Amino acid sequence: xxxxxxxxxxxxxxxxxxxxxxxxxxxxxxxxxxxxxxxxxxxxxxxxxxxxxxxxxxxxxxxxxxxxxxxxxxxxxxxxxxxxxxxxxxxxxxxxxxxxxxxxxxxxxxxxxxxxxxxxxxxxxxxxxxxxxxxxxxxxxxxxxxxxxxxxxxxxxxxxxxxxxxxxxxxxxxxxxxxxxxxxxxxxxxxxxxxxxxxxxxxxxxxxxxxxxxxxxxxxxxxxxxxxxxxxxxxxxxxxxxxxxxxxxxxxxxxxxxxxxxxxxxxxxxxxxxxxxxxxxxxxxxxxxxxxxxxxxxxxxxxxxxxxxxxxxxxxxxxxxxxxxxxxxxxxxxxxxxxxxxxxxxxxxxxxxxxxxxxxxxxxxxxxxxxxxxxxxxxxxxxxxxxxxxxxxxxxxxxxxxxxxx
Length: 406
What we know:
By secondary structure, the chain is α+β, with helices and mostly antiparallel strands. The protein has 2 domains: 9-77 and 208-403, 3-Layer(aba) Sandwich (Beta-lactamase), CATH 3.40.710.10; 86-205, Beta-lactamase. The protein is 28% helix and 18% strand. It has 13 helices and 16 strands. The strands form 5 sheets. Strands 3-2-1-16-15-14-13-12 form an 8-stranded antiparallel beta sheet. Strands 4-9 form a two-stranded antiparallel ribbon. The chain has a two-stranded antiparallel ribbon with strand order 5-6. Strand 10 and strand 11 form a beta hairpin. 48% of the residues are buried.
């Protein structure tokens, strides 16, 4: 589905001059060879006020970015998975304080890493059992394995719970053998937690994750290009993915002609497996901006969404007070975390323009979105550059977008 109407920016309180600064800023990255191409979408008051494309979706083949280019959205999958699990919560099929081992019996009696090298770890008992809320808010004690040199993270690398050739059942079995990084509910650590949420969606609903999304989220919202696999007839719209070179240029890391995303997927990653378009993701984000509904289709209740976009971090603190390390998808000062999204608590403390209650997230290939309910504002940025920490563009375009509000 494409966006068939672009409203004049001034009609919804956005400065066209400010948006021109946004395009020029991102175009400078493209012209310098730092980004292959990009797409920017700004919506306010429920209307798309700006959609611009620049650069190449596929540099090698000279294919420009277009409004219907399909991108790997990686961790922007997480909000959809979180919404899916909370839809089941709305049906009374689970509670946030349910212990995870209620649904994954092999995880009963989890322990916390203290010392040692894999597989000879010394561990201790957890202070309490991991809950569903711990998974949704990344306070589970799980980790990723790719961003730390600790023995536990090295064990994740060895066990490869997110192997594309595996299944969600395989992931659960591999994680059952590993201790936690900390006792659940005490710290925040970006992790495979949302992949486990995807597994819970399957267990509780009785549907495969892709079928559940199609029936309850992407299908109802008309997100026709959002899927775990790029269909053959859509492969010509699939962007290439790049990484930076030491010289500041680009190197191809995933060719759309041979990408695993173009074949059948056995591992349905609720944490990072979807591909999508800007127009599709806008429909999802706009539904959230509207309190859970778009075009007469409600995907989540207004009060449930309010719960999801509240800060769930221990003691009501921000990420800087409870998180391990740093993560490029968000600032840490003045930013909390809800059930599937980062949540702005204090824009002054974060040193980034915004509103309390704004929620957001991004993906490993530098895609990003945010929703500001107070300003009725939705922003979506699509590109394909890994890792997302390569350039500080997310803070930069936030300052430009907020500066364009009139």
